Amino acid sequence: MGVQIISGYAVNSDTMNIAREIAGRCGKSGIVEPCDLEGTSIEVNGEQEQLNYENLQAKKTEYGLEGPGLTPADLAVYLQQEARGGQLVVRAGNRLIRIQTLAVSDQESFDASSTVKALIADPKEEVPLRIAAHLESGGYTYQDNRKYLLPWLFYATKKGDCNDYALFAHYVLSKAGYSPRFFLMFNPQVLKGNELPESDDICAYSDQNGCWNYFDNTGLHKVEVSSIEQMFAMGLPNYRWNVELKVEDGRAIITEENTRKVENIRKKILLAAPNTR
Fold it and tell me: Is the pTM of this model over 0.70?
């Protein structure tokens, strides 16, 4: 059983074949038409539902899949995500197409993808530059989602805010053998109305010469100083306070202590910069 990466999602080759077979029911195997889905249903762990063209189009947007129309690859991603480690039964009319057990994780597939392999390849000192080039030219756009997307989901959707860019850089740097650190930075600017303090999430790392630099959603910042405190002072002078989060395998771990620290910083900023209208 092979695995393909489609927009960052792990898809079994058998699932791709199912999608192509469904797409070919009306004669145009390269696209999925509404008539292809007539009388077609899927059953996941005993629960059956009809395949609906409009719902699939909505899912395509949700999954961050690009391009007009609906392709067999789009349908394959949908089937894979719906099955998610369970048993998938696909029926077209009265005919059973396939029963397939699916148990491929997005993380495993992302790690094995050509993208990650290229980013973490030797020489290791070039990894940060490769990450920066990938984030700049890879079709990513800023979207304030107020979430901590897992790196493979950020890669799949190509949309995220500063924490998603920083977590992606942290994940790839970790895979390449670096020891990056993840910080929430806060700017004590004058607040207006009920505004929240300006913040930024960064991934800081020490390069092969022991110099500190960092990533955020604007890319790689080559500060090249000998300590992380100098990096804050020279590279992020407007951000007076910070909270460090632990990151495990691309997942930001937010503890109660982190939450208390952030709340205390917000209070300090509010006291230092009273609201103005």
Answer: no
- What one-character-per-residue DSSP string does 138-201 give? S--EE----S---HHHHHHH-EE-HHHHHHHHHHHHHHTT---EEEEEEE-PPPBTTPPPEEEE
Confidence of residue 18 (pLDDT cuts 50, 70, 90): confident
Nearest by Cα to 166 from 128, 209, 117, 112: 128
Per-residue confidence at 154, pLDDT binned at 50, 70, 90? Answer: confident
Q: How far apart, in Å, are the Cα atoms of 10 and each of 79, 80, 238, 244, 274?
A: 11, 8, 41, 32, 50
CA dihedral 145, 146, 150, 154 (to 10 degrees): 20
Spatial distance between the Cα atoms of 99 and 14, rounded to a whole number of angstroms:
10
Predicted local distance difference test score (pLDDT) of residue 169? 98
The per-residue pLDDT for range 25-41, each reduced to its tens digit, is 887 778 999 988 888 88
Please give the pLDDT value at position 26: 82
Is the CB of residue 90 less than 8 Å from the CB of residue 98? Answer: yes
Beta-bridge partners for 141: 159
> Token match 């009306």: residue?
26
**Beta-strand (E) ranges in the chain?**
3-6, 9-12, 40-44, 47-50, 87-92, 95-101, 141-142, 159-160, 181-187, 198-206, 212-216, 219-225, 241-248, 251-253
Query: Are 207 and 221 contacting, i.e. CB atoms less than 8 angstroms apart?
Result: no
What domains lie within the chain, and their CATH numbers? 3-104 (no CATH), 123-272 (3.10.620)
